[in-house]
Amino acid sequence: MGKGLPVIEFESVSKHYPNGTTAVDDLTLTMPEGGITVLVGTSGCGKTTTLRMINRMVDPSSGRIKLNGKDISATDRAELRRGIGYVIQQAGLFPHRTVLDNIATVPLVLGWGRRKARARAEELLERVGLQPDAAKRYPHQLSGGQQQRVGVARALAADPPVLLMDEPFSAVDPVVRAHLQDELLRLQDELQKTIVFVTHDIDEAVRLGDRIAIFRTGGQLVQCATPAELLARPADAFVADFLGAERGLKLLSLSTLAGVEQGPAPESGRWRLVTSGDGRPQGWRDTTADGDSAGADLVPVRPLSDGDSLLAALNEAVASPSGLIARVDADGKLTGVTSRDAIHDAAGHEHARAAKADGGAAPAKTDAEGVIA
Amino acid sequence: MNSVDWGWIPDHARDLTILALDHMATAGPAVLFGLLIAVPLAVVAHRVRALRGLLLGISSILYTIPSLALFVLLLPITGLTRTTAIVGLTAYTLCVLIRNTVEGLDAVPAHAREASVAMGSSRTRTLLTVELPLALPVIMAGVRVATVMSISLVSVASYIGYGGLGQLFTDGFQRNFTTPVWAGVALTLLLALVADALLVAIQWLCTPWQRGHAARTSAGKAA
Amino acid sequence: MWELLKNLADWLTSGDEWSGTAGIATRLLEHTQYSLLSTLIAALIALPIGLLIGHTGRGAFLAINLASFGRALPTVGLITLVFLVSGLSMWPVYISLVALAVPVIVTNTYAGMAAVSPEVKDAAAGQGLTGWQVLWKVEVPLALPLIMTGIRLAVVQVIATATIAAYVSFGGLGRYVFDGLAQRDLVQVLGGAVLVAVLAIAVDLALGGVGACLSGLAGSRAAQHAPSPHGAPGQVAPPHDR
Q1: How many interchain CB pairs under 8 A, A with B?
Q2: What's domain A6-253+362-370's architecture?
Q3: Where in chain A are the domains?
Q4: Does the pTM exceed 0.90?
Q5: For C87-139, where are the alpha helices, taking DSSP H only?
Q6: What fold does the segment set A271-351 form as a domain?
Q7: Does residue A97 sit at the B interface (CB-CB below 8 Å)?
Q8: Yes or no, beta carbons of C174 and B66 under 8 Å apart
Q9: I need a surface site. Which of A70, A252, C41, C82 has the fewest CB within 10 A?
Q10: What is the pLDDT of residues C20-38, one digit of tens each?
Q11: Min CA distance, A138 vs chain B (Å)?
């Protein structure tokens, strides 16, 4: 999680339209280098306008926006945009160009030459997890998820340090969306771009964001903080409401099982954990059931590793007949079990810790500047 | 006599070929010039809302002038030349071509235009590399209509001597002889058919992304 | 040029030119009669065809291609042919003009019907409307703007083309064009052309008004789909081209 210098700085930026509506109201916000800043809010809250002001698709009515310390209004629009990747809803691919040519767009505009641009496009195609044979296809021949990957590849083509993403995953189904989110995080681990991401989906924001900025209708920034802080200490009722009733559970999605105590699998009691020869958990066996068919009637188990979230652990513990979750190492071998109570305790601790995180926690302090009174 | 004299046709094969070529020498340039004039005007009409109504209105009014009258009115300016026939027909193609080009540009998906601009392409580059290619299917539909219409209208220019196959109508009318008229109508239809097929082929070649599009969507619906 | 316009103005405003059995008023009336009657007959032929193929979805390919074939028919050739075959009667004029108008109306009617979304039709059928009711209560009202566009396109084309009635010795405003051509009288040709254009625009606007009223009756929802008010040929391309 990059926590570098501010790359994008909004200084008292407002956007009013001639018809009297205010899209963005006196916004002061910084977006740090190498981090994902998620702008979230209901429709008409100005989050997309905020994003589009960064590449000057929209010009502010007042205030100043700086990119790497330079006022963007002094930069040539086209030049500015070529240095900023842009991914929009439904990918915004060119229907008349092949996937490869779509990805090569900016390199070609920049005058890289056809060969170099294509080589780069092929490299990116692989990087975003598409098969090489997709190169010659046209966008309409791809699924929504694949199109979105091409959109990301296209935005990355000229290796811009900044990436703007405007609800890029909102048009795909939840399963594909989760995949794309994982891929984005994986890519971000490698590339460390400064990403500004707009969404209306708070779960997506919590999942992706290093920092989340919540906007209210009328273009007001209500709170900007790390996901943990936001979930634990929403600034006001609006934010709390926006985060939803399962705010506490969402917080658990941010912490992992690592460090939660585990013990040996039970040798007595009604439920026994069955493992394979090489130590992989197979399922729970009910010792009170008929002996004959016992081997076949295992209740399935979903083993969890240290990287899984507390939320997943809680979910698994609720579903497990024994109230225990099976813990495994990276190879999938059983390391022990953890009880429902232990997970509850850990969850409670996490919550308490997040709720009073101000004790010297640097992000919370700087984030407070983002809050507009 | 009103039955078709089949022997007449092979006897005049050479004349008919010359007339057909002459026909296309008028209709072809008319569509070409029409396109050269219509596309820039349509781009202006597409971008400047205020001019849209004006340009479409003028081209619609041009269309209401009887073709014969238009040819005659051009006589003092361009004389009894092929230019008169071509200019007259060009004026008629404008209405269809401007309208279709504007519609084609209107139908370009906003996200594609937006993506191009956001990636730092200039307006001209966006027009040439994104908007016009994507508008091509609708523009081509207009070109097909304009071509068929021009081929059908050339015959009117026979009154000023450049009617191509239309000369056959005057000829047949004056001699009260239907065979040349039949031949003229049939050949005009044939020319239109061939030209239309050619345009379909050109469109197929120029729009590779559209191939199999319909098949895929219907397959998608069935799935 | 100025001279010409001045003479034209004189010609158009002269009382002598307007009166009498060969005056402008009579010619205008004849022209209107040829055009409107032809368009009416064409609509009676074309509307059922367009509605039928639009509703059933069958025969669309054939009908649309026949229509584009029909567009290629040289009207001068057709009128000459019918004249030579039938002799001196009104047949050549009406047959040629009807042949001109039918393809335009069929194409636009079909396009209007094809543009009605399948979901809407499905929903209507799902509520228990019969095929006939779906046609009249859903498809036709929604397709009406495009159908009206087709009729307006046809009428403009017919009015411009009705000039050729004079070619086979009939009246109408074409008389001025042909006689002017024969007499090398440019003012007469120009006068005829102006009158035809004005008539075409007036009828087009009038039908536009009628269309707006019909759409209003058919529900404001349909009106939202109305194409731009000024009809023009080729506005609707054969749907398979899009």
Answers
A1: 65
A2: 3-Layer(aba) Sandwich (3.40)
A3: 6-253+362-370, 271-351
A4: no
A5: 91-114, 118-126, 131-133
A6: CBS-domain (3.10.580)
A7: yes
A8: yes
A9: A70
A10: 777 888 899 999 999 999 9
A11: 6
